Amino acid sequence: xxxxxxxxxxxxxxxxxxxxxxxxxxxxxxxxxxxxxxxxxxxxxxxxxxxxxxxxxxxxxxxxxxxxxxxxxxxxxxxxxxxxxxxxxxxxxxxxxxxxxxxxxxxxxxxxxxxxxxxxxxxxxxxxxxxxxxxxxxxxxxxxxxxxxxxxxxxxxxxxxxxxxxxxxxxxxxxxxxxxxxxxxxxxxxxxxxxxxxxxxxxxxxxxxxxxxxxxxxxxxxxxxxxxxxxxxxxxxxxxxxxxxxxxxxxxxxxxxxxxxxxxxxxxxxxxxxxxxxxxxxxxxxxxxxxxxxxxxxxxxxxxxxxxxxxxxxxxxxx
Length: 319
Known about the structure:
Mean pLDDT: 88
Distance between the termini: 36 Å
Strand order of the largest sheet: 7-6-8-9-10-11-12
Number of strands: 12
Structural class: alpha/beta
Helix content: 25-40%
Shape: elongated
Radius of gyration: 20 Å
Largest sheet: 7 strands, mixed
Strand content: 15-25%
């Protein structure tokens, strides 16, 4: 577990916010606890509020390294450190933070369904110590299947990789089931709770012979994206992911929110809270922009010809 990881410091392009100035004058440096993999995106967002690591802010990173069972202890440790704000990346991390404290403000990000998970009373009025950003990943699964079917019209069986430890995945699967009849596809569910489970999960695909692979949004799957993309390539499986980083790692397609952008936007909430705002009064933000990314190099290796109509709608094409 990473005990602490500093942001890469950069030039501050804006004047420091009121609390940043007051904190410096009072000699108190705000401390942020982060549950999730270290990300420069959060540091960039904080610098927009005038907070620079090592100057007027301190950050405690706790990375579960794909093992979600580590989050509860990591969250408890941040509470013991008396951090001023906790940033939780993903549903499992947010649940651990919620269970660890009802006092310290929590900024969630990359959470598929904050209301359904019980993190907030409503998007408009969160009501407690948690607010942040919803990825609405559960609502995108149907569209991901539609795009797969458009890219591979003959596909009839799609293997779906889920994490039984991710509280958002049951909802995602219900959304996927809702479009299967219309698309004429059948889902084959595979499970992996941690990195050590992936080899057995891949082996389980041997007798299933799916025509494509859909990977549900999950922090562990994201961290293992190169391993998953390599497996899909070896099995000649067209794979659909949520973030473009997965396609850059060799996956065929992705459709969803920009992960770095959502992490950077989480810093907006941190800045507001450090300036005195209460999480209960800050509405949960939902994304309005989604990216379709296609890897033509992977398509060629798989012997696929992506329809021109799909290529014209892509936000990015990797060749």
